[in-house]
Amino acid sequence: MSQNASQSFWRAAGQRLWRDNLAKLCIVVLVFYFGLAIASKLGLVATDWNRGTGVSFANPSFIADEPNPFGKNSQMKPEEVPLDAEARAVDPLAPYYDQIDQAAKAYPQVEEQRSWTLPLGGDKWGRNVLDKAIKGGEVSITVGVLAALLAVAIGTVLGAVSGYFGRWIGDLLEWFYSIFTAMPYFLLVLAIAGALGTKGIGTVIMVLGLTGWTSVYRLVRAEYIKQRSREYVQAANAIGASQSRMMFVHILPNVSHLILVQLSQLVIDFIKAEVVLSFLGFGVPLDSISWGVMINEVMVELVLGKWWQLATVAVVMSTFVVCFGLFTDVLRDALDPKASRR
Amino acid sequence: MSAYLIRRIWQMIPTMIGVMLLVFVIFHVFGSDPSVILAGKFPNKEKIAAIQAQLGLLDPWWVQLAIFAKQVVTFDFGRSWSTNESVSALLLQRAPVTLTVMLPVWLFDALIAVSLAAWVAYRRGSLTDRSIVAICTAAMSISLLLYVVVGQFVFGRVLGWFPVSGWAQGDLWTNLARYVPLPVILMLLVSVAPSLRLYRSFVVEETNQDYVRTARAKGASEGRVMVVHVLRNAAVPIVTNLGLQLPGLLVGSFLIEKIFSIPGVGSEIVTAVSNNDFPIIKAITVYTAMVTMIANLLVDVLYKWLDPRVELK
């Protein structure tokens, strides 16, 4: 019975979600992004993001003919260097050119042909901005999703224990919660980032997860306090269900929709936090890439009039985050029909 | 009431101890050794050992913790490890700077968000309402860093309306006229949207109450219903939210301060953490924790004052 009821709840929520055109659009966009991130993780796209494939600050394809002073040197071929008889006459090396050529032939030479334009332009080292955006998206989305999962796991377990048991264990966890909320959030983030030491994507995930659980804890605790006196919990108790079974098998499904909404909210928050952390140099290491690192790079380029990397990362990142935000809204409405569109 | 106050203040002590322990463990056990940074370019063992002894790093941990406890009680956090400035003097110098930026943000945020929220909530369900809520979601999703990078470039460099960054030390009016507007506008872009959405839900909640129907039935004008009846009652959660933002006013946005080179508390945090300057970190954490707890208490008391039905327990 309860199995059926809960199934129809999710199905109804799914139908409400799919009926909304905005939600449909968001889901399509999100699926596209997650698909790209997975493809990038599997090495199908953007594998060469760290190689310079274009000249420095290569133009985006749509402004291909614009002059690009930064690319001039890398475009010049040796035969284009003017060398007439007069120049040879005053050149003290002139008699040795044959020798030099002979010596040079003994070494394998690679002529690097770098492209003048890239689909969305190139950065300072001629790396493809499109590839960087895709690879950066993979890292940012991974960080956001994994950190949100970690934070939600911590918050849910602590909140469930605190709300379900109450008494001294609840007081202890409340104390713990008040400590975390009394400290300035970013001091906590920076402190834990410093404490963990090693820079890397794993560290960023840990830091954001360990500091971001408080909102989930608050919510889950309040729900558990409300739910623990409900009849179905008493019934489960009467048939001899264990404490952990009641907490996580019986009550958890009844609060899972709230947790789901929190999860998707946290993904957005953490992607934004990762951007800021990377900007400050506490986040993703510089030999790796993320949307945050890309924004970090663009300030200097903007002054030179090279706006395409910023435009790319702004559009790509904003589209993802805004769609995720709108999706979270619709999700909240779909999962909690009473609260919707009040 | 006074019994309630005393109990709440009493309850702050364990939280304070917890905050102290957390900071101590994070920075002392896991943090890097500041004496290596302080020893300069050519560190040798004797130099590092001398600095460690000077900073008290060689004392056993319980002695250091006891010193920390004494510092919290006496509000004297000694001198900064990296600049040797007195911590209280340093913070007294930084806090007003942060407030100069954050107070306008707080005020304008409240003004804009409350008036827009009332207007939007009044026309709820309309196209205006839905588009404003959607715009809010979009606006709050975009990273502050993007607003800052673009805003600084467009308004600071291309249009030249505001200086790109900078600060006039000690000159309030120059700061307010020249250096504060751009950071404030950029922060408002991010902060108004979530407040607006929150306040809108508060106002909508109130307009569904019975007393609104009663007021309308008695022939009160729409404006009167909205301002006198609805807003007065929605003011309770709004004031709560404004009170909860108070600790943030002191800490400020380190991102904004870092980018606009505003010498406030926020940029001090970043510097202190990267130098492992423990006295400053201790001081900022302890003060923020205190302000947070006092603000929470204040909000609860205010709640009671605004809505006599609320019971303080």
Notable characteristics:
heterodimer; A: 342 residues; mainly alpha; 2 strands; elongated; B: 313 residues
How is this structure best described in words?
The complex is a heterodimer of chains A (342) and B (313). With 342 residues, chain A is mainly alpha-helical. Chain A is built from 14 helices and 2 strands; from the N terminus they run ααβαααβααααααααα. Chain A has helices at 2-19, 21-41, 72-75, 85-90, 97-105, 129-165, 167-182, 185-196, 201-211, 214-227, 231-238, 243-280, 291-303, 308-335, and strands spanning 54-60, 115-118. In chain A, strands 1-2 form a two-stranded parallel sheet. Chain A starts with a helix and ends in a 7-residue tail after the last helix. The model of chain A has no long low-confidence stretch (mean pLDDT 81). Chain B is an all-alpha fold and 313 residues long. In chain B, 78% of the residues lie in helices and 0% in strands. Chain B contains 15 helices and no strands. Chain B has helices at residues 2-30, 34-38, 45-55, 61-74, 87-122, 127-141, 144-158, 172-179, 181-207, 210-217, 222-244, 246-251, 254-259, 265-275, 278-306. In chain B, helix 7 crosses helix 9 (181-207) and helix 14 runs antiparallel to helix 15. The chains are: A mainly alpha (342), B mainly alpha (313). At the A-B interface, helix 7, helix 8, helix 12, helix 13 and helix 14 of A face helix 1, helix 6, helix 7, helix 9 and helix 13 of B.
Radius of gyration of chain B: 24 Å
Structural class designation of chain A: mainly alpha
Terminal CA distance of chain B reads 9 Å
Quaternary structure annotation: heterodimer
**Model regions low in confidence, pLDDT < 50 over at least 5 residues of chain A:** none
Helix run count of chain B: 15
SSE arrangement of chain A, N to C: HHEHHHEHHHHHHHHH
DSSP summary: helix tally of chain A: 14
Question: Count of DSSP E strands of chain B?
Answer: 0
Spatial shape of chain B: globular
Backbone structural class of chain B = mainly alpha
Shape of chain A: elongated
Distance between the termini of chain A: 31 Å
What fraction, in percent, of the residue positions of chain A are helical?
55-70%
Task: Please tell me how large the radius of gyration of chain A is.
Answer: 28 Å
Helix percent band of chain B: over 70%
β-strand amount of chain A: under 5%
